[in-house]
Amino acid sequence: MEQQEVIVIGGGMTGAAMALGLAKLGVKVALIEKNPLPQFSPSMAYDVRISAISVASVALLEQLGAWQQIEAMRLCPYDGLETWEIEGFQTAFRAADLDIPRLGFMVENNVMQIGLWQALSTYPNCQQAVGFSHLFARRENGLWQVSLDDKRQFSAPLLIACDGANSVVRQWAGIGLTSWQYRQHCLLAVVETALPQQSVTWQQFFPSGPRAFLPLLGHQGCVVWYDSPERIAQLTQMSHEKLSDAIMQAFPPRLGEVKVQAKGSFPLTRQHAQRYFHQGVVLVGDAAHTINPLAGQGVNLGFKDVKALLSVLEQALQKGESWRDDKVLARYEQQRKGDNLLMQSGMDFFYKTFKTDLLPVKIARNLGLIAAEKITPFKKQALKYALGL
Predict the structure, then answer these.
(1) Are 204 and 85 in contact (CB under 8 A)?
(2) Which residue has the higher pLDDT, 60 or 84?
(3) What is the C-alpha to C-alpha distance for residues 315 and 324, in angstroms, rounded to an integer?
């Protein structure tokens, strides 16, 4: 059995970032990922799983030493964000409002994962296990013992759960959830655009859900269509040609002509762990919280979790505290739980406000968008919060 100080379960974006941060602190860490790692080459088509990475997340990835690898693969900067319901009643955010060159980057999730694992390869204190069918664990005398396919085994006093919304590690710890379904699904489609490369991401609200555009390199982009599960299932079953026509009919004219290259869909859910740590397990990212992807904040919240937990553990090391103690882990929960709840509630407010088609509500929300456009200090503060600044 391989003895470690920490075991990180889940080697996606947040898990790999967490393990990398621990390795940089000199901690003996094991990173366990069930699925084979993705591959990348510049000639590969875009994957539909794309995230809007904020400048704060970029700063964390730079600090971890992974941004250089990510930047060498593929990303698209964006410097503007626009949102509206009725044409002419829109709120526009620009990087120039904060005197910064850009708001962030559109990056494929696979690219971020690969870059983080590449950075990890230089740390011998990080043991890695990738690709297995079954994961078993038990806790004895304050130590977690984790077995992969009844063969390779790891042991550590602390488990960090980065294994996603359906976290098995969260279940091991007996941590409950507060959750509900939005009764909406989301279609993602990578498209070839007739228009040249763009630098603004935008979304328009409809009673059935928002429709958005994420700019990618060259004549490419990703469209995001929220609607009922039935409608999204219907769209997903269409041929690329018919789906292209449906998108052009449903989206605002500014999208222009598009041709679908790839598509995917997923249900919208909100869930929040009732606590972030218990019995030697700490939850990070989607294992702790999922959010309506309305503003693309999911992965950025996960990276905020990583940054906060690394800071708490580093301070505990410096003070000679045992970082498995509840009083240490409670500092992480205190930093992140309220902020995550605030972002979840904010996204729900927008979602519910724009879902109703009642005329008084419709007038009020569009006047609100006009006001937000005019009130510069409010706009700046909202933008700073969204970017993690």
Answers:
(1) yes
(2) 60
(3) 13
